[in-house]
């Protein structure tokens, strides 16, 4: 059977039941493809064993880039390219450069991080998401289990594991 | 098993389920516009159109159409600019600072407050832009772009240039913050819709699917954006106050300006949020989401910031006297008892005395009183900027050049234009965008009061 095509879906009503269910299902050795929720569920990423997001590092690096660019630009323009005496200050009046440096740091950190977020989460205006269950943006949590990755486990056993851990419905879904 | 915590009241009343949240909020987007909304839009568009005549007059004839003269070179334009920027501070404060402080009540008001921020900043940016006289070449003057004069660069020692960077950064970061929050809610509307609406909201939702890995990154992005936006929001009004504080005009040359302006900005921003939310919750029947509890908490912020502003006014006077500088002392006596005494005392009454009424629980939990006081606060904050700007300028160093400032019909019209724009944009937002952050409200729906175990 091909991977990433056929799924068994567990439908959960409540976030606390979902968190327990994720723990129980993973304990039986079943590998979960992904969980889809209408809102962020705290602790779900840890239960699923996801590695912490590295977006803070991206933000820091972009911020550092912003600081460097802003300082380089201001020192180049004010000190080297066309030095002028303004208000009797030094050409390289560093304290005066702080506001613009701060703003460009924030600007680049924010835009850089959001850009990385968009790319890593595959978010784009022409994006066509694979919808497992329309209710996953409304009021249900959907746990998707890929049949092919769990080929060693019996299908009925997966369904039983979902039901016994609190799923209100167990459905199957196939994509072309 | 149901565990109920006795400590905290639920943030959303009416025993709403997740499905109810989706239905209540998405209904506004999916339904036909109401008569009240259409009337509101007609009035705002009317103001926008009438005001645009004044805008065209300014662009066509030049800023000589305003009431400025050689003594008072800054008046309504910069007053309106600072007023609108100040209003634009509440949105990011609510969504960023309150997120860092884990104030979960922010979830039902942050969306609308951020929208208000974005529209207010656009209104604010209009004034310095048209004050350039020829805004179509203004970008070359205001940004460090290579030019044929050398290149002769912009002056990085000038607070006016810092403002260009601060306002544009604030605007774009707020816009991104706001939009990231909107994406999951657009996906909710997309999944309920068919046909053209599905296509439009599908594109707006950027292909969001609500996967746990995406939510994890989303949470991380929100937290860091909040961390970045918090110093940003403080820096913006600080830099706006530098426009005055770094000058050598008596009445402006004051080190207290940055914190005093930031407190004033939050003060007026919260008042505008209250004005808008009290109307919105009524029109869209959102009383269960924006509760009296929310209004009371915002009123408490108004008491605090209003009192800070009051203390700042008094400190300014003390320092003017204590400095022993005759020009400084005269500037402040002139504010209080000079020809603009009425503006000064309006400011004092509206900003210092009226918010103290919120110490009474009856008043701060009353919708009518809150609505009236929120308008009073914004009138007072407009007068504050007018007092600082015009009364410090109109009697300068040479008594022969002492004048009064009289606004022209064009001054009034341009101000009206910004009102028209602000309310038109807000009404369009309230109709076509989910006015409350559904995903975040769902996430606080029960965690604060109960926990369900299997």
TrEMBL record, chain B:
Pfam families reported for this sequence: NrfD
Keywords noted in UniProt: Cell membrane, Membrane, Transmembrane, Transmembrane helix
InterPro entries attached to this UniProt entry: NrfD-like (IPR005614)
Organism of this sequence: Cyclobacterium xiamenense
GO cellular component terms, A-Z: plasma membrane
Ranges that cross the membrane: 37-60, 80-101, 113-131, 160-182, 221-240, 260-279, 300-322, 342-360, 367-392, 412-433
Protein name: Quinol:cytochrome c oxidoreductase quinone-binding subunit 1
Family of the protein in this entry: Belongs to the NrfD family.
Subcellular location: Cell membrane
Annotated membrane topology: Multi-pass membrane protein
């Amino acid at each position: 059977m091909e991977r990433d095509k056929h799924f068994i879906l567990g439908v959960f009503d409540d976030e606390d039941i979902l968190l327990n269910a994720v723990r129980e299902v993973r304990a039986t050795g079943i590998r979960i493809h992904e969980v889809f929720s209408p809102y962020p569920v705290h602790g779900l990423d840890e239960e699923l064993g996801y590695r912490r997001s590295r977006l803070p590092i991206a933000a820091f690096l972009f911020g550092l880039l912003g600081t460097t660019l802003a300082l380089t630009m201001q020192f180049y323009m004010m000190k080297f390219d066309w030095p002028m005496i303004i208000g009797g200050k030094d050409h390289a009046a560093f304290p005066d450069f702080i506001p613009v440096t701060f703003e460009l740091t924030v600007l680049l950190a924010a835009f850089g991080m959001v850009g990385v977020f968009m790319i890593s989460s595959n978010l784009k205006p022409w994006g066509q998401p694979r919808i497992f269950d329309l209710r996953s943006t409304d009021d249900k949590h959907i746990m998707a289990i890929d049949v092919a990755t769990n080929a060693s486990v019996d299908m009925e056993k997966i369904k039983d594991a979902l039901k016994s851990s609190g799923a209100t419905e167990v459905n199957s879904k196939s994509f072309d | 098993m149901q565990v109920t915590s006795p400590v905290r009241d639920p943030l959303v009343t009416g025993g709403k389920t997740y499905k109810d949240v989706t239905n209540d909020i998405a209904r506004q987007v999916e339904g036909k516009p109401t008569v009240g909304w259409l009337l509101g839009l007609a009035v705002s568009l009317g103001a926008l159109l009438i005001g645009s005549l004044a805008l065209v007059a300014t662009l066509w004839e030049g800023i000589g159409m305003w009431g400025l003269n050689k003594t008072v070179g800054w008046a309504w334009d910069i007053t309106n600019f600072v007023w609108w920027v100040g209003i634009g501070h509440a949105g990011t404060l609510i969504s960023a600072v309150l997120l860092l402080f884990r104030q979960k009540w922010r979830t039902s008001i942050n969306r609308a407050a951020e929208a208000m921020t974005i529209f207010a900043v656009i209104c604010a940016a209009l004034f310095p832009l048209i004050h350039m006289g020829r805004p179509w070449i203004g970008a070359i003057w205001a940004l460090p772009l290579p030019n044929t004069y050398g290149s002769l660069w912009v002056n990085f020692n000038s607070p006016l240039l810092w403002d260009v960077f601060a306002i544009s950064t604030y605007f774009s970061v707020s816009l991104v913050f706001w939009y990231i929050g909107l994406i999951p809610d657009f996906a909710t509307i997309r999944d309920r819709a068919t046909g053209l609406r599905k296509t439009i909201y599908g594109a707006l939702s950027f292909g969001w699917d609500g996967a746990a890995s995406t939510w994890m990154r989303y949470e991380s992005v929100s937290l860091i954006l909040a961390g970045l936006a918090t110093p940003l929001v403080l820096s913006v009004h600080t830099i706006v106050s530098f426009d005055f504080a770094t000058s050598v005009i008596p009445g402006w040359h004051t080190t207290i300006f940055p914190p005093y302006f930031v407190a004033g900005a939050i003060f007026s921003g919260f008042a505008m949020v209250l004005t808008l939310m009290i109307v919105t919750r009524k029109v869209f029947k959102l009383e269960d989401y924006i509760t009296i509890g929310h209004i009371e908490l915002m009123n408490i912020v108004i008491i605090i910031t209003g009192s800070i502003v009051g203390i700042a006014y008094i400190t300014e006077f003390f320092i003017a006297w204590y400095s022993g500088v005759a020009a400084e002392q005269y500037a402040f006596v002139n504010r209080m008892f000079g020809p603009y005494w009425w503006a000064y005392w309006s400011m004092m009454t509206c900003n210092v005395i009226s918010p103290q009424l919120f110490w009474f629980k009856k008043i701060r939990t009353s919708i009518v009183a809150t609505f009236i006081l929120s308008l009073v606060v914004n009138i007072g904050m407009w007068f504050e900027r007018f007092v600082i700007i015009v009364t410090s300028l109109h009697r300068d160093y040479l008594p022969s050049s002492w004048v009064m400032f009289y606004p022209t019909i064009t001054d009034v019209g341009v101000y009206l234009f910004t009102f028209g724009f602000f309310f038109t944009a807000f009404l369009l937002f309230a109709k076509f965008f989910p006015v409350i952050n559904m995903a975040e409200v769902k996430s606080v729906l029960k965690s604060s009061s109960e926990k369900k175990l299997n």
